[in-house]
Design brief:
5-stranded parallel sheet; about 15% strand; alpha/beta
């Protein structure tokens, strides 16, 4: 049993890094990067990746089998609640009744910012339909609370726009969401490098989900390993509790007594 597990919908996971499976050059590189990341939950865009809906074509599940990973079907590319619900029902059918899913309903094809009214509508429908909904959302504490009240199993606010690599642009809103939530809070979207992931974890996030930051790196496999270390280090730093910041004076890290030249004073 892992000493500090991530618990989502009653299931424990040793890794707090969740990764996507898109944008790699091929399935072989996808698997190599996923393994290097140490991720146990991998998200799959049902509308873009074959997991059985295209018979006779290579399936992602051949290289990332559900017996080894928790598959998290997502609704990437959906712009209405209706499309998102339909897509996840297809994913549940393809994965033999698998209930855990990632909901995202986009509002703009250029920025991929979430459409929150449609997200709330889809979340309510999916929860009633028996899904365990992890939900991509704006970094709005009020709407995050609404999603929790609906019955979602994890809140996933963006750090910055999907694929932007801009890191955490509004840590204050993120902190407000973390402090009020009774559910796991995972940063989703905007992470660009390992330090971004570490900062998210140091703020108190329960985990980080990323895709482009790994897949678009010059060396995706090496970056996947870096992200693994960053999430682990950030979590340990959060649990350890950092020293207070002091802007007014330096404080020596070594004892001040017994210095050379101070004998007899």
């Amino acid at each position: 049993m892992h000493a500090d597990p991530l618990v989502i919908a009653g299931k424990s996971y040793g890794s707090r890094l969740l990764v996507g499976t898109g944008k790699y050059k091929d399935f072989a590189q996808t698997r190599e990067a996923i393994v290097a990341s140490g991720a146990e939950i991998i998200t799959v865009a049902i509308r873009r990746t074959n997991i059985g809906q295209e018979p006779g074509q290579p399936s992602l599940l051949e290289v990332l089998p559900p017996a080894q990973f928790t598959i998290l079907p997502n609704t990437a590319g959906c712009f209405t609640a209706e499309d998102a619900v339909r897509t996840l029902r297809l994913g549940r059918e393809l994965l033999d009744g698998h209930a855990l899913c990632k909901l995202e309903v986009l509002g703009d094809p250029q920025t991929l910012f979430p459409n929150m009214p449609e997200t709330l509508k889809a979340a309510a429908t999916l929860v009633k339909d028996g899904f365990q909904v992890m939900v991509y959302c704006a970094d709005d504490p009020i709407q995050a609370r609404m999603l929790e009240d609906i019955g979602c199993v994890a809140i996933m606010p963006l750090a910055s726009l999907i694929g932007s690599g801009m890191g955490i642009l509004n840590p204050w809103n993120l902190k407000l969401i973390i402090e009020q939530a009774k559910l796991p809070v995972l940063v989703d979207a905007g992470v660009g490098t390992a330090s971004d992931a570490a900062i998210a974890m140091e703020l108190g996030c329960d985990g980080v989900l990323m895709n482009t930051a790994i897949a678009a790196a010059q060396d995706p496999v090496l970056m996947a390993g870096a992200m693994r270390k960053a999430v682990e280090a950030g979590r340990e730093a959060f649990r350890a509790g950092r020293m207070p910041k002091k802007t007014y004076a330096a404080s020596p890290s070594s004892p001040g007594g017994g210095l050379i030249g101070q004998a007899g004073k």
